[in-house]
């Protein structure tokens, strides 16, 4: 009732401390930017949306995400197979072997980068959103409910005093 009356402008609302309001605004801003950065980093690390959904499902089911071959590793595999077809002794075959080995190392480096970024960058962001932010939201709801209770009590006290003053005047 108090919440509805406040929204309709029929009840007074106890204002929170300006510093506290500033902290709440900063917390909201931090949450919003953390979500955006987390989503965009996930897109950068895994551009394939269906693969991201699959990884998300594995994560939610607490199962190990199957290891994927990176594009660089796949290209290296193709180059090595082509080099074997052309013959490792031919100039083209030798070149494909060298470039294929370089691509394999690049693919392995990419895989390590993805693993490292996920572990050292995305995990803390997720921990904030799933842990700290939930605690902040819960405490914020509790504070809001307590403030509404306080304002409702203030309104009742004001009505009681007004009724008491009216009764004193009529006697």
TrEMBL record:
Organism: Acrocephalus arundinaceus
Chief place of localization: cytoplasm
Name of the protein in its database record: SHLB2 protein
Compartmental location: Cytoplasm
Domain BAR: 5-171
Source organism superkingdom: Eukaryota
Entry keyword Coiled coil: yes
Keyword entries, A-Z: Coiled coil, Cytoplasm
Gene responsible for this protein: Sh3glb2_1
Gene3D superfamilies from the UniProt entry: Arfaptin homology (AH) domain/BAR domain
GO cellular component, one term: membrane
Record carries keyword Cytoplasm: yes
InterPro entries: AH/BAR_dom_sf, BAR_dom, Endophilin_SH3RF
Family that this chain belongs to: Belongs to the endophilin family.
GO biological process terms on file: membrane organization
